[in-house]
Fold this protein.
Amino acid sequence: MLNFNQIPETPKFFGRRKGRVVRKAKQFLLENMLPQMQVTPKTDFSAEAIFGGPKKEICLEIGFGDGQHLYGQALNNPQNGYVGVEVFQNGVANLLTLISGIKEGDHLPESIDVHDFKVQNVRVFDDDVRLLFKALPDDFFDKIYLLFPDPWPKKKHAGRRFVNPENLKEIKRILKSGGIFRIATDHPVYKRHVLRTMHEDVNFVWTAKCGDDWRKEPSDWVKTKYQQKAIREGRRPVFFDYKKI
Ligand SMILES: C[S@@+](CC[C@H](N)C(=O)[O-])C[C@H]1O[C@@H](n2cnc3c(N)ncnc32)[C@H](O)[C@@H]1O
């Protein structure tokens, strides 16, 4: 019998996909709203096919968590298109809550039409981003966000960190030349890991010119849930912008 790890197309995932409970409104949104915004590895990735026309910028957010940053960016920049990827089902449902305004305890409508909502420029892949990489064309994204990825600080778990040469190869391929790969983290081990790994990759250059460029939030920033937790607990987030050469 095949073991999960032996199937080459299915990378092993370390983390949570499902919470204990998906509540009623969230289940409703996952069943009725997500299919209208969903992209899959079978999707034809062109601005026309996924957003219905050209976009000023097309951006990818990997591991959007509860979706605050993705939603905020999409709301602030209707001229852009956003592809968000998250494996955690409750996180995806939370993004749908932000977009639809439908919360637990609300009267649930008979049906839902995403065209009725203010934010129209978000598409979602609700699985492991590594399963989507092959479907994404070269030079497709203007920006890629990886915000507060799981740090896996123990040495024995270092191989699980998302910033690694294999994933960077794909990030480089799908990002346009001159495009930005933004990584935020609050973990000292991950800060060092990012600086070292990105420094070794000749395809990217760190854009920071002074301390404020990475210690302060970028001007277009929207706070994430994890960032707010880090600040409450006394950790200092940093923001690294790498430009693809
Ligand atoms: C520490 S949380 C940060 C969430 C969010 N970016 C924030 O700042 O609040 C990391 C998130 O990345 C997601 N994640 C980890 N690996 C992933 C992968 N390979 N594909 C998609 N999502 C992933 C996890 O499910 C989790 O929600």
Notes: The radius of gyration is 18 Å.
